[in-house]
Recover the amino acids of this structure.
């Protein structure tokens, strides 16, 4: 019985020894990998990593600043492009290269029978309207653009060779109130027409369309 | 004594030449299991010296203590609580206690044998 007991204890001891040796082997390989030399190296490596991290943080800050700068430039560029496009479309409208919609005035000029209106009258009106901020003007559906010309020949008015007859319908797109005040200023177009005994009707329109003209 | 020296030798040789290593993640659990097994071993030796050794108690204690201690360590890891410390403290204290008792028993036996002579 005693021998048997001793066997059991010895067997358990053997198992413990095997496990201990295996555990030593496992830990030994781990300790060998991270020995004192490796610790020093690890500290040096950590220092290098910290330095790298700091330099990278600085680099990131620089790049962030650069991104901000570029964003600002990009925004400025966008603003510039936007204003440039607005300017281009404004000039296209003024030159009559594209159709324009908006608020404006409809001016109807009805001369008396056999009354002849001079071409200067129309030129004055058109200039007054441009001065009042008009974006587009048409006379009897003929768009006034950069290459149109008003011409009078033997009491007959024409716009770029196209004859126009009374009553004259002048459509103008622009700031209604300004345009109206331009017409009504003392010594202005309305007064001139009144003096000449020409009937003048001015009405406002919130949704006007003037088609493209000019060089077409 | 011969049995123990033999077991130690065989254990070292087998452990050394076994082409296998305990995976690092289980290393901690095996350590706890070894401490528990050592506690059982010293408990068995003490029982042997006190002449009240029981095979069943020894084997069940040896296996269960090791397994439960390893499980405690595993559970502690999962709970984020160092439960293995409980096993280390309890088994460590018991190992020292058993060793102290064994030392006294061996010393008493030696002194008695000497007196007889």
């Amino acid at each position: 019985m005693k021998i048997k007991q001793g066997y059991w204890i010895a067997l358990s001891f053997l198992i413990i020894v095997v496990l201990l040796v295996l555990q030593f082997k496992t830990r030994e390989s781990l300790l060998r990998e991270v020995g004192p030399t490796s610790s020093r190296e690890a500290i040096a490596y950590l220092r290098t990593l910290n330095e790298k991290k700091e330099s990278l943080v600085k680099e990131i800050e620089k790049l962030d600043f650069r991104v901000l700068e570029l964003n600002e430039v990009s925004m400025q560029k966008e603003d510039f492009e936007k204003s440039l496009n607005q300017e281009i479309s404004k000039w296209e409208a003024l030159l009559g290269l594209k159709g324009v919609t908006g608020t404006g005035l409809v001016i109807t000029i009805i001369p008396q029978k056999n009354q002849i209106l001079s071409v200067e009258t129309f030129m004055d009106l058109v200039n007054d309207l441009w001065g009042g901020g008009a974006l587009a003007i048409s006379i009897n559906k003929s768009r006034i653009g950069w290459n149109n010309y008003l011409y009078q020949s033997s009491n007959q008015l024409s716009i770029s060779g196209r004859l126009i007859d009374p009553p004259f319908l002048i459509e103008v797109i622009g700031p209604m109130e300004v345009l109206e005040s331009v017409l009504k200023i003392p010594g202005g177009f309305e007064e001139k027409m009144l003096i000449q005994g020409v009937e003048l009707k001015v009405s406002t329109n919130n949704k006007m369309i003037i088609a493209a003209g000019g060089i077409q | 004594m011969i049995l123990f020296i033999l077991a130690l030798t065989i254990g070292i040789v087998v452990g050394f030449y076994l082409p296998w290593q305990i995976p690092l993640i289980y290393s901690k659990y095996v350590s706890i299991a070894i401490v528990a097994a050592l506690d059982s071993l010293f408990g068995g030796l003490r029982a042997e010296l006190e002449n009240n050794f029981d095979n069943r108690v020894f084997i069940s204690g040896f296996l269960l203590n090791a397994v439960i201690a390893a499980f405690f360590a595993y559970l502690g890891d999962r709970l984020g609580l160092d439960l293995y410390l409980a096993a280390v403290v309890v088994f460590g204290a018991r190992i020292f206690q058993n060793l102290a008792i064994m030392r006294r028993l061996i010393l008493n036996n030696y002194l008695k044998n000497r007196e007889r002579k």
Q: What stands out?
A: The CA atoms of residues 85 and 192 of chain A lie 39 Å apart. The radius of gyration of chain A is 46 Å. The mean pLDDT of chain A is 83.
